UniProtKB/TrEMBL annotation:
Protein name stated in the entry: Restriction endonuclease subunit S
Domain Type I restriction modification DNA specificity residue range list: 99-254, 436-545
GO aspect biological process, one term: DNA restriction-modification system
MF (Gene Ontology): DNA binding; endonuclease activity
Species annotation: Ectopseudomonas toyotomiensis
Segments forming a coiled coil: 529-556
Amino acid sequence: MTALLTDNLPLLAGAPNGIKKLRELILELAVRGKLVPQDANDEPASELLKRIAEEKARLVAEGKIKRSKLLVDINELDKPYELPAGWSWTTLPGAASYQIGKTPPTKESKFWDDSGQAWVSISDMEHYGEINDTSRKVSVLAQQNVFKYPPIPAGTLLMSFKLTVGKVSILAVDAYHNEAIISLSPFCGVSKDYLFSFLPSIALGGQQKNALMGNTLNSESMAQLLIPIPPLAEQHRIVAKVDELMALCDRMEARQADADSAHAQLVQALLDSLTQARDAEDFAQSWQRLAEHFHTLFTTESSIDALKQTLLQLAVMGKLVPQDSSDEPASELLVRLTNDRNDYAAIHKVAVAKPEPISGSDQSLSLPNGWAWARLCSMFRVITDGDHQPPPKSTDGIAFLTIGNVTKGYLDFSNCRFVPQDYFDRVAIYRRPETGDILYTVVGATYGRPIAVNSSRDFCVQRHIAILKSSKLISPAFACYLLASPWIYEQATQSTTGTAQPTIPLKPLRNFLVMLPPLPEQHRIVAKVDQLMALCDQLKARLNQARQVHEQLATALVEQAVA
């Protein structure tokens, strides 16, 4: 069975979350007795468990451990699978004695001492690691009045069973621990390393119950945890083989991370060569280099996403479609946009935003023929945001969209809030989104996301969403691609204020620097970007299909391994 595993490591590791699943498979095979061969000369586990029963009786009689109040008849429990010859089932109390910890009153300083005895909480535990220090320590008074027993000795196995179930660590120092953790002392004949390897998966398979802050195993379900016990000699062989295979997984993970990093750097370097091309000839050469290795470069979702961002950057730089000298120049388009903006402002009694002057230092790139430098506010009639007053609540009426309703890439009216009709009627016309307008998130972790309004439904938005009122002189689809480009996102990031809640103020938003193409070229750019984005989506679809096939093959192999 080990040969089946090792011979197919590339297939298993290459599946989605492959190395994580491979680790789980190694543990699964180990506790089913399929990882190392059995040896008929080994003393059977049944004999081992008889001695453990005698040991438990002696320890109870000597008062060293308490008699379990939750004794379970092992024969009444459903066994999840058949054990190999020489193995036996027992429960957790049959394999180890364990003790639940305590927490002294946290608000009573007399029980806590920074120089006192280590006290372990779940946050101090590194899964499959050692505990060398703890964030809190208890005083001598706590040891005497709360715990009333000596510290748990270094070398003891700890496992969490509340909130985070199945986290294990080894104490490297003497310590106490809280009531979400048990300290385990395996009985003679049960390897601590064996329990350390397999208790997490066994605990996670127990009858967990929902608690306020996570899941938990109660005393009854913990006492019913079934432990498969091999002969002691086989326990040691299993632990050695698991350590060997887990180390192999570590090496594969490191190599995979290095390969992924190198791949991402290579893709980005080749994509950067497109956006940084000096002239048409340089661009053509860079594109040829990319095209020759297209299907070997764009083999991950992140690389395809990087390609999409580069396509947007090329689009707004005028490098994606050729210019046409018969197009009306953008300079003349800007004049018409100014007139349209002034007319709109006069009708709706709104102040006209004055774009900041564009200096020579702003013009860091050479403009394509017919293009013009402009500020973002020059492209739109108005750039504003939602009403700053908290809206009245209503169970129906007019939809009121928040950031959560626009960050999926479309207007999501499901589970939205509502405002009364009379409130909406008082909202200024220029603050009501209409078909063709652009919404742009300006607050929080999802700032900088544009959404084209493609619905004729009446709605309004919260102040965290900017409204860019469009006209027929600008392609809304081009405006969306422009606002989604790295060129604009970088300016958005540089303009944010605040750290916990980054915010793009309206003034810098209105003055984002853009390169404006003629209107006919805007439409040609949109057509080309739509075409290329569809190809990127096809790449992703094929990638996902290949992953599904890969996962199915890996799953079939796993099923064969554990059968």
